[in-house]
Design goal:
Blueprint (H helix, E strand, L loop, with lengths): L15 E2 H8 L3 H9 L6 E3 L2 E4 L1 H16 L4 H8 L4 H5 L3 H5 L2 H8 L1
Antiparallel strand pairs: 1-3, 2-3
Length: 109
């Protein structure tokens, strides 16, 4: 893994350990393990160690937001995260897209 996450060349390269990811997200490592078990995210595993990329961290921030701020349950979060590019199918207005968590998340990846 890379010692300096900021020097990582790719947003998809796994650079954060579970402890670092948990600290940056202000959640406990057990929470990240639960989210993995619930299939919200699949970190890179090397032996027993989990590593998260910057893209994973953005997804984890979105998961946390949906669970804590929007008060969705796990199945609701899965449904939201599975709606990638739904705004193209539904032809949502700019106003709707500006408040849509899926659209906002997709714009960050």
């Amino acid at each position: 893994m890379i010692d300096d996450p900021d020097s990582a060349g790719s947003r998809g390269e796994p650079v954060y350990t579970i402890g670092t990811a948990a600290r940056l997200l202000d959640v406990c490592a057990a929470t990240l393990r639960i989210w993995e078990k619930k299939q919200l995210l699949t970190p890179v595993r090397l032996g027993k160690n989990r590593f998260y990329s910057r893209r994973d961290m953005e997804r984890l921030e979105m998961i946390k937001h949906l669970l804590q701020k929007k008060r969705l349950n796990i199945e609701g979060v899965k449904a939201v995260l599975d709606m990638d590019h739904c705004w193209e199918i539904r032809q949502c207005s700019a106003e709707d897209r500006d408040v849509c968590p899926v659209y906002l998340y997709a714009g960050r990846t």
